[in-house]
Structures are given as structure tokens and as C-alpha cells.
Amino acid sequence: MVTVTIKDIARDLNLSTSTVSRALRDSYEINPETKRLVTEYAERLNYRPNPIALSLKENRSRVIGVIVPQIANNFFSQVINGIEAAAHDRGYHVIIFQSHESYEQEMITLQQAVARKVDGLLISLSSSTSDVSQIKELQQRKLPIVLFDRVVNDLDILCVTADNFGGAFAATEHLIQTGRRRIAHLAIPPHISITQERLAGYRAALEKYEIPYDENLIRYASFGQNEVEPIIDELLSYNPDAFFAASDRLSTSCLAALKSRNIAIPEQVSLIGFTNLPVADLLAPPMSTVEQPALEIGQMAAEQLINLIEGKQKDIQPGTNRIPTTMVIRASSQPAGK
């Protein structure tokens, strides 16, 4: 396939290359008839801008880097879909990196992204990340960065998350309103922002209904395959009548552990998760969950980052944008007999 260039179009139309270039950029300096002539001819020849030439001219790569803990996680794959859609609409390409829940790998991917001259970074921190000094250093070097989902409070930075507090409050309130009083909370590592927000929502719902907060009913787990089984045994010794898991990866493990112990759901204990996996309604029983707006988080995060890159909004202030969650009620948290 022959690559058509601006020089080819200029020669064929007997125009200067600068006139063709300005016409393709819809410059006010070029009269409408010339613009029409150039754009129609460019379309007929299937002209495509050279991204390398554009990046050299604009001093931008028109590429954004995205660092996620795990692409195989359905939530993050949906976020990436949102990021790619928004980036494509604004003329940017996306490079995806995985940290695999490792701080060390996250640092390596940060260095790789910077080495590839990305215009900005979208980052969801790994579950083992507590040191954000390298992100601070990149900020000081004026690299645009937006955090999403898993964020930190000690950075002056734009963040986009779900309303984790509101979602956890709604889940806990639902369990209370269906008659549950001893609600165990299975959380992910305690230093992660979403863990703290969901725990705060859980506690606020208990307080609203004057139910004492019991530390014995709280457990933290990472994402190891065999971690949940012993935790469930510990929690069962405190006679819970419901389980609220802070992620659907934990709630599905919790479901399997309870069923293997012949504990009837929801007759003996209710169960609710957080994320809304695609298979949640296919489980036995179908899983109640808090649905996170993954696509919207990705779209908003990408839009915010590109606005920073392009300086479109000079008054952008650091802070967190929280997108509402939705409760999805299924059989696992219905009152017994319903």
C-alpha cells in the first residue's frame, strides 16, 4: 500500500504543503473552499496523518500510559474499555501495563512508560503499594497523572473512583433492613483507599441503625487462592448472620467456602459482594452485589488526563471525582423464605 503524504496532496492540487497542512487542521487562515477541496481529496486518497511526524511537530507522543493491577480482573478490563474509547475520541493511543499487584513491578512499569515518552499516566495502585514517592517525583517533573479506583490521600492529584463509601453503606443497610444484625465484613488490604472507604460506609450504616461495631467481625485478605477458607472459619466462630465482601473476587471465594461447609445462603447467612462480576447472576444462589461504574470511571479518568495534557482547563484542581454505584439485589441477600 502506497502511503499518501501532505506533499503528495500539495503537488496534485498545486498548493503549498503549509496550506494543505493548515487546511487539514481546519485553520481559520484557510478559506472554506480550499479546505473543502483539500479534505475531500485527502479522503479520496485515504490520507492518514503520520503519528511520528505529528508527535515531533507537537512535541507530544499522543500516547497515554495506563497501569492496572491486573487486566484479567473484569473491573479493570471494563475501565480500560472506557479509557480507550475516550482516548480514541480525542486522538490518543493507549499503552497498557500490569503491576500484577506488585509494588516492585509497578515501579518498573512507571519507568517503562516514561521511557516510551507517554504524554501522561493513568494509574490504579497495586495492593502492595504504600510508597508513592516516585509518583510525586514524576509530578514534580510536570508529567500529567490521574489516579483511578485505588488512590492515595497524601498526593495533590486528580483522582476518579466509584462512591465506595455510598456503595458499602447501601450494601450494609440492605442487609440490616432484611433483618441481619451480625454482619461480617471481609475486606482487601487495609492500606488501600477503597478498603478504608468501604469500611467507613459499613460502619456508618451500623451506626445509623445503632448496631455496635465489632472488630471480631472484620477480616482483611489479599488475593491469594487459599486465603479465604481459614478466614471464613474464624468469622463463623463469632456467629455472623451475613457477610459483606469488599470485592466480588472475595465474595465468590466466600460463597464457595460457605457452601463447602453446608451453610445455606441466604437461609442461614446472607452474602453480598462489591463490583458485579459478569457471572454474579449465574452463581447458586445468584449473588447480590454493589455495581461499580467501571466504564464511566475509565472514560472520566481519560478525559481528565487529556485535559491536563492539553491544558484545556487551566483551573483544574486536585481532588477526587466519585461516581455513584448501584445496588443489584439477587437471591444471596434476600430474607430467608423470600
Automatic annotation (TrEMBL):
Does the entry feature the keyword Transmembrane, yes or no? no
In terms of PROSITE patterns, this protein maps to:
HTH_LACI_2 (PS50932)
Instruction: Tell me the keywords, alphabetical order.
Output: DNA-binding, Transcription, Transcription regulation
Keyword Transmembrane (UniProt):
no
InterPro entries (alphabetical): HTH_LacI, Lambda_DNA-bd_dom_sf, Peripla_BP/Lac1_sug-bd_dom, Peripla_BP_I
Give one GO molecular function term: transcription cis-regulatory region binding
HTH lacI-type domain: which residues?
4-58
Give the highest taxon in the source lineage. Answer: Bacteria
Question: One of this protein's Pfam families, by short name?
Answer: LacI
What PANTHER family would the database entry show? HTH-TYPE TRANSCRIPTIONAL REGULATOR GALS, LACI-RELATED TRANSCRIPTIONAL REPRESSOR
| Name of this chain's protein | LacI family DNA-binding transcriptional regulator
